Amino acid sequence: MSDSLDDARTAELSERLEAVRGRLDAAVAAAGRPTGACALLVVTKYFPADDVRRLLNLGVRSFGESREPEAGRKVAEVLADWTPEDSTDVPVFDMIGTVQSKKARSIARWARAVHSVDRPKVVEALGRAARAALDEGERTARLGVLLQVSLDGDPQRGGVVEADLPALAEQVSSGDSLQLRGLMVIAPLTGERKYWMAESARIHNAFRDRYADAVELSAGMSGDMEEAVAAGSTCVRVGTAIMGDRPLLSQ
Ligand SMILES: *Cc1c(COP(=O)(O)O)cnc(C)c1O
């Protein structure tokens, strides 16, 4: 680790990361699921490249970002001076925020997967962008796609209702540059968390019956990890519990 990053912030991140890993392991065990059944995506949106470097030094390899151009710049900055141990040790960055079609081209340069796909126009833009990135050698694998499900139908919060999932899934699968990986949910703020998570599990199970490769269920954040893991989440997206409160100036 470079000495300049071996500081109080690293100690703080290390402590919170261990606490979250402990919560996640306990939740997976309590749900009777195998160790490692649920991945941890550390959400570093609004935090600087040096925090990503600190987390890399602490062993984190999966990150979530939510906005362009902040994300693209940060990823490029971090990767410029990071040498992986080997090809299996390369950090991955997922896009978890709302996608604007005009940003698709830059997202396709850095994202392993996009968790927040919820409109035909975005599927089309990402498909074209991923094809161009593959052709130009900017990526080697297809761009992963998780369809964001709206549990309560509130259009403000993004996502598609269950009935509209098949049409989007068909659109994703019809090209050769995107790969349908699963579903993403953000639990509504009102109502019982357990109820929403049970709904997520039901919708995901039904979806997977039809699209066997759609194994991922991205569900759970700092406040509802345990309920999400109990409902079968394969990826929790945790920001605040590890990073602390997001800086206000960049909201
Ligand atoms: C910011 C964000 C998170 C992280 O939420 P925390 O409550 O800070 O853990 C997770 N998912 C999405 C889609 C986000 O935008």
Automatic annotation (TrEMBL):
The modification N6-(pyridoxal phosphate)lysine is found at K45. Pfam families: Ala_racemase_N. Residues 39-247 form the Alanine racemase N-terminal domain. The keyword rRNA-binding does not apply. SUPFAM superfamilies: PLP-binding barrel. It comes from the Bacteria. Its cofactor is pyridoxal 5'-phosphate. One of its GO terms (molecular function) is pyridoxal phosphate binding. Keywords: Pyridoxal phosphate. Pyridoxal 5'-phosphate (PLP)-binding protein, which is involved in PLP homeostasis. HAMAP family: PLP_homeostasis. Belongs to the pyridoxal phosphate-binding protein YggS/PROSC family. This is Pyridoxal phosphate homeostasis protein. It comes from Gordonia alkanivorans CGMCC 6845.
